[in-house]
Amino acid sequence: QVRLVESGGGLVQTGGSLRLSCAASVSISSINDMAWYRQAPEKQRELVASITSGGSTNYADSVKGRFTISRDNARNTVDLQMTSLKPEDTAVYYCHGVKRSTLPFQYYWGQGTQVAVFS
After folding, report:
1. Which residues, listed in sequence order, are joined to residue 80 by a DSSP beta bridge?
2. What is the pLDDT of residue 1?
3. How confident is the model over 71-107, as pLDDT tens digits?
4. pLDDT score, position 109
5. Backbone phi and psi for residue 2, each to the nearest 5 degrees, phi listed first
């Protein structure tokens, strides 16, 4: 059973920074794509950033230039460095993984960590 556990959320002022971390219970080198999603109250869950096993990254337009996703296969962690935070970044942030080496694909979710940005 694969577990993803997020940490690092909290309350921060506009313009501040936070670093989220996702720890996996298995080697993430076996998980092809890792990502961070977020869900604000009364809104749909949306992709924030993703990173492939090869290190290619993708970001939502709303966070480009402010957030950086990284993965450390040795530590089995995926981090999201968030800077210049805005109130609209307030949401529960979820770690997500996709394993494509088996059929059907395996999808994993963490429990989420709350980020609140106040002005």
Report:
1. 20, 69
2. 82
3. 999 999 999 999 999 999 999 999 999 999 889 999 9
4. 98
5. -90, 130
